[in-house]
Amino acid sequence: MATIDGRPAQYGVTLKQLRELMELRGREGVNKINGYGGVQEICKKLYTSPNEGLSGSAADIQHRRDTFGSNMIPPKPPKTFLQLVWEALQDVTLIILEVAALVSLGLSFYQPADDEEKEVVSVDEDEAKYGWIEGLAILISVIVVVLVTAFNDYSKERQFRGLQSRIEGEHKFSVIRQAEVKQISVSDIVVGDICQIKYGDLLPADGILIQSNDLKVDESSLTGESDHVKKGEAFDPMVLSGTHVMEGSGKMLVSAVGVNSQAGIIFTLLGAAVDQQEQEIKKMKKGTCNRYFRSTNHFE
Questions:
Q1: Could you tell me whether strands 229-231 and 180-185 are parallel, antiparallel, or unpaired per DSSP bridges?
Q2: What letter would DSSP give residue 236?
């Protein structure tokens, strides 16, 4: 049998079972935990100790990341500069200016037939010679606007991501490892960690309460409910990532992290919804442009 750090590599509970467990609330959650033999038995299945926590060895931590995921939600890939340029070009006003510039350039290079030239009474040769400048000026203006817009968006996105990564790197949380309370980065928390929670904490992962003392949590960020929710091992032991501890203190067993936590699942769904909304907006813009050009052709 394969072993990791002196214990079996196969856990007594799967990632799917832990995700399903964290979807339950109240009495349903308590009954499900009791079905596994209680929170102490779940700790045994995850090879952790409620009092001493994890061993903290590199092999054990990495194996838990590989099995249950890491405690970070992958950000949406940043848009390249060319993508931002393309998005800037989708502006309806700029599209109209582009078409006007192309029409102006086309007319400036148009040469009438010989018979038509004879009918012209007077022609300003200088105007005919430099008529292309107007269309070129419009095109240059559009290019400048697009490049400036794309550059500003690119700079803002880089600054935002830099600030976000710096904040995430500075966020520490109290966990018990090797029977000692340690402050570690939130991204280093894994399933099986024992976390100490107290008033003012923003919970970094989903967990099951091992013990609590007058614990109340603000879950409005996930549920929209403004009232503080009282938590306890006997009646509602599930605490969720992204929620704030408003009163009391306690100790929890980390049961889901990153994209497998309830907050991670919501963020993933929101990301998919945002992508779909962006596609719909692009379709609407394209439809608006088509209607404009159809109406223009109709009047002509």
A1: unpaired
A2: B
Structure pTM? 0.66
Q: What is the pLDDT of residues 51-62, one digit of tens each?
A: 999 988 889 999
Cβ partners under 8 Å of residue 54, min gap 6: 48, 60, 61, 177, 178, 190, 192, 193, 194
Neighbours of 220 (CB within 10 A): 14
Domain total of the chain: 2
Count of beta carbons in the 10 Å neighbourhood of residue 110: 9
Clarify whether residues 80 and 153 are in a common domain: yes
Task: Kindly tell me if the per-residue pLDDT of 117 is higher than 70.
Answer: no
Q: Helix or strand or coil: residue 189? A: coil
Structural domain that includes position 15: 3-71+189-259
Rounded-to-integer distance, Cα 82 and Cα 35, Å = 55
Smallest Cα–Cα separation from 218: which of 203, 204, 207? 203
Within-domain flag for 283: no
d(CA 40, CA 207): 13
What DSSP string runs through 10-65? S-SS-HHHHHHHHT--HHHHHHHHHHTT-HHHHHHHTT-BTTTBB---HHHHHHHH
